[in-house]
Amino acid sequence: MARVLKPYPASGSAVFKISRGGGLPVLLYWAEKTLAHRTLLWQKLNHKSACKSCAWGTGGQKGGFFNEKREPLQRCAKSVESIAADLQGPVGRDCFARMDLARLQELSSMEADKLGRLSHPVIRRANSNYYEPIGWEEVFAIAARAFSGPPERVASYSSGRSSNEAAYILQLMLRAYGSNNLADCSDLCHSPSTVGLKAVFGSGTSMVSLDDLRQSDCVVLLGSNAPANHPRLMNELIQVRERGGAVIVVNPVLEVGLINFATPASLKSLAFGSEIASLYLQPDPGSDVALLIGLAKSLIESNRLERAFLEAHTEDWQAVIAHIQATPWERIEHTCGIERAAIEGAAAVIGRAERTVFAWAMGITQHANGVDNVYAIANLALLTGNAGKPGAGTMPIRGHSNVQGFGSMGVSARPKEAIQKALETLLRKPLSRAPGYDTRALIQAAESGKIDALLCLGGNLWGANPDRAQTAHALGRIKTIIYLSTKPNPGHFHGLAAKDTIIIPVFTRDENPHKTTTESGNNFVRLNSEGQTHLHDADLISEVEFLTRLAHRMHGETPLDWRRLTDTAYVRGLIAQTIPGYEKIGEIDRTGEEFTIAGRIFHEPRFATPTGKAKMFVTPLPVLDKPRAEDFGVTTSKRAIALVLVTVRSYSQHNTVVYKAGDTYRGMPHRNCILMHPEDAAAAGFAEHERVTVTGKVGQKEQVEIIFGAPKRGAALMFYPEINDIIRPPVDLRCGIPAFKRNPVLIHAD
């Protein structure tokens, strides 16, 4: 039975304002945006390009509504949100002349986004309080000077919103120059998945295809709020339940859409809703290793291990089993906050299943032990034989639409040796093996005065980082920052360089004058057709053209004809030569055949490691100290409570871009809210809707409204990126990811 969500009574209201996710509000939203944009919206929806939202998106040469199996009606509200935002009119020519930096810095993410589409390049010069127009010749002159210094002092940051071709040119340009400083948004989101899975299986992406997911009879969904962030996945979870399978949800928060979801793709589901979770486990934030060890321990004790599989296809399994057996149940229960009986019940479901898919998102990765979390998931998959066969395996759920493609193209501070060697052959010279800066290391290097020039291909580097005061100070020590963006965001106004800050307006994916490709989170490569922009008087440039022109100024005519890279078909030929598994992309212009990348979907237990066997890792239980009011210097007489804060995105949000201020799924009416368990609030003498102060390691938020909800007791939720103002979480040093999902805070009365 699913754990039923029962609203807590509070001030005459309920925890959630809705009883299920999806449903009629989705249809009403589609209708609203259709009326606002009419035929233009539907032209974009049907355009032959990949969805601009999450990596579960649709699109490609079959059309915008089709998935990789060519099934129709696969668009979701997240897709409409991104398209509708891109269909805004241009930022007024006088906007930046009227609004100085002080006024621009007052804008929220939503307010900045609603300024419209960037339509002309602008620059903020040293000591100026305004952005002003700038011509292209001066843009490239400044960029060329900025990127002419020592290679170790130039860097890039990218968001995954662009194409494989732009990503490939970016890394080729910097590596040919001698720099490995290719920071990426995945450093803040999913780097533990890449590092962990690469170590275990030799491949850092999902081993599960859409076909595999449809053959599974059990899905374990960990640390994901898919109804808000990956709505298309909900259709697949509903199908798992409808064919008699199980969905085990692991999340410190009871999310209404993971209890029941009404998909518009089914009239029955739309009318009555569909049960999602057959079991719902709420561990303490950061304790996933303990829960996963508990699941494995129960399977060992009930003799449900696949020992023949382990002996034939894995390494170091004996040490992992010995560690699990030596871990007492008392420590497991104490660490994760879940009783043994509940863990054993979930383990029994996994043990009975024939084919289990383990899927996860940032609730698993954004921890100080994020890599251990991924190791522990992989261990459980291997212990049960759920790797290397159809319908089973590990499936990280990527967030941005092409963030995985950027990693495949080599945009990483940790370049793969195979790609490095292939690029050396292409460029006819050795490349630097010096470690590059990931995103957090980039901020630290900039703060130490070690970076002179930074190119940001999309994203909001200032807003995405914790301790935004530190980030603004660090960026302020860089001489030149160039932002390539479609719309304004607060990072353009707070992440200011010491000398020149330039914002370059670029085409969206469905506007590019050339074909591009993108990669889904399940390793499927889509071809995006050319398009047109509705901004008829705008002076836009494609990322490919900007990067190619800059590369030509940096490198001249050697060792490549850099200007030829404006031909994206030629770029795809280079990708086919140098990126393992991408050989088919060299023929995609001729054949139009979209494809699954070779060597990543494992249907046989032979993995991409040197031995062909999966390598298992012992995962220590985390030591999770509970925050105390005394840690913040508060006496017991004051109305206050110390909790573990989990940062989350709202329902109408994509990465740092906020489309609507509130969150109807969680009943949070605006951005300055904290979601608390009613019993935690009562322990401190707080009432729902009371305004309090929330203090973190590096700052505080005032006038925060308490909203009652269903997080695990001892935990609370606030919205990212706003909460980045007050937190500076620890980092998993193996991958550079900050622990956004576990931060001590004090909630106290003013």
Automatic annotation (TrEMBL):
Residues 117-482 form the Molybdopterin oxidoreductase domain. Residues 643-743 form the Molybdopterin dinucleotide-binding domain. One of its GO terms (cellular component) is membrane. Keywords: Iron, Iron-sulfur, Metal-binding. It comes from the Bacteria. GO terms for molecular function: 4 iron, 4 sulfur cluster binding; formate dehydrogenase (NAD+) activity; molybdenum ion binding; molybdopterin cofactor binding. InterPro entries: Asp_de-COase-like_dom_sf (IPR009010), MoPterin_dinucl-bd_dom (IPR006657), Mopterin_OxRdtase (IPR006656), Mopterin_OxRdtse_a_bac (IPR010046), Prok_molybdopt-oxidoreductase (IPR050123). SUPFAM superfamilies: ADC-like (SSF50692), Formate dehydrogenase/DMSO reductase, domains 1-3 (SSF53706). Pfam families: Molybdopterin, Molydop_binding. This is Gll1882 protein. It comes from Gloeobacter violaceus (strain ATCC 29082 / PCC 7421). The lineage of its organism: Bacteria, Bacillati, Cyanobacteriota, Cyanophyceae, Gloeobacterales.
